[in-house]
Design goal:
This protein is of the alpha+beta class. It is about 20% helix and about 25% strand. Strands 4, 5, 6, 7, 8, 11, 12, 13 and 14 form a 9-stranded mixed β-sheet that branches. A 3-stranded antiparallel β-sheet has the order 1-3-2. A two-stranded antiparallel sheet has the order 9-10.
Length: about 300
């Protein structure tokens, strides 16, 4: 039996549906037969085909031809990562734009994990060899603060904080259009786009997604926002802003066909607040607005 990698967006969905996403060559009936026969297990137990996957579930299967996440021993690479805080249990770093956080079936190049292995003496092992220390992630072209676990105990406790929405993450974004309101909350469910499996979308039966926003500045045809995540769905801020008609500047996936610049979305995680998993001390870290933002603001003002 081989372990089947589960992504955040898989949680809350039926087992047979998720297996179907990972191998479109298998029919729904075939997948359900595998599950009923015990060829696909959850936590080493037979379950119903409609079992709803939850955080912590471990799915294993016989060789079904399912595309699994690539597992390999990442090489150490000196990326000169900007680590702004570090102790025996965790670290906080400022991820640059353009750097993928960890390897996956769709990306085997140099990632932030390679740099962590070079610069950090120990990392948590809970997520395996290709995601050591990784608790949460930022999109490749989103810059900013990222929390990394160095011990397994810290990892477990921080992951629980994330699941309970106890870690505050605040972002800067430059988006298209101006707003009548100065603050607001976007409450729209998100799941994988049924029309394009490479994208996420606001879908009626998706998972709950909440984003708070505050307008900091307005220009001729653009706005600078501060946003905070209540939930943490894949591409949440990008999907929400695009859905309400204010896609993020430079977003090549959810923005206009003719996008601004050539470096991706102008989205930066500038503040991170959490309770230290060991000392219980409340900690807050901030970074300044990237120069790229300042240059874009001059251009659009």
């Amino acid at each position: 039996m081989k372990k089947i990698d589960l992504k955040e967006e898989d949680l809350g969905n039926r087992l047979d549906y998720v297996i179907g996403l990972k191998n479109k060559d298998l029919s729904r009936n075939k997948i359900q037969a595998f599950i009923k026969n015990g060829d696909i297990l959850v936590n080493n137990q037979k379950v119903k085909t409609g079992h709803i996957l939850k955080d912590g579930d471990v799915v294993t299967a016989i060789d079904l031809g399912i595309k699994e996440e690539i597992i390999y021993k990442a090489e150490k690479v000196n990326l000169n990562l900007d680590i702004i805080y570090e102790d025996d249990d965790l670290l906080v770093l400022n991820k640059p734009k353009g750097l993928v956080v960890h390897p996956a079936s769709t990306y085997e190049g140099v990632t932030l994990v390679n740099g962590l292995l070079y610069q950090v003496d120990k990392l948590s092992t809970i997520n395996g060899e290709n995601r050591p220390g990784i608790i949460h992630r930022l999109d490749k072209d989103t810059s900013g603060l990222l929390l990394v676990a160095k011990s397994d105990l810290a990892h477990k406790r921080l992951a629980k904080q994330i699941a309970n929405h106890e870690i505050d993450r605040n972002y800067y974004a430059i988006c298209y259009g101006t707003f009548k309101e100065s603050t607001g909350t976007i409450n729209m469910p998100i799941k994988r786009d049924p029309k394009d499996r490479l994208k996420m979308a606001v879908v009626k039966d998706g998972r709950e997604a909440l984003t708070n926003f505050k307008v900091l500045e307005q220009y001729r045809n653009h706005s600078l926002l501060e946003l905070s995540l209540i939930t943490g769905r894949t591409h949440q801020i990008r999907v929400h802003l695009s859905h309400i008609g204010h896609p993020i500047l430079g977003d090549q996936t959810y923005g206009p066909r003719k996008f601004y610049g050539n470096t991706g979305q102008y989205l930066h995680a500038f503040r991170l607040s959490f309770k230290h998993p060991i000392t219980k001390k409340f900690m807050t870290f901030e970074t300044k607005m990237p120069d790229e933002f300042l240059e874009a603001i001059k251009d659009i003002s």
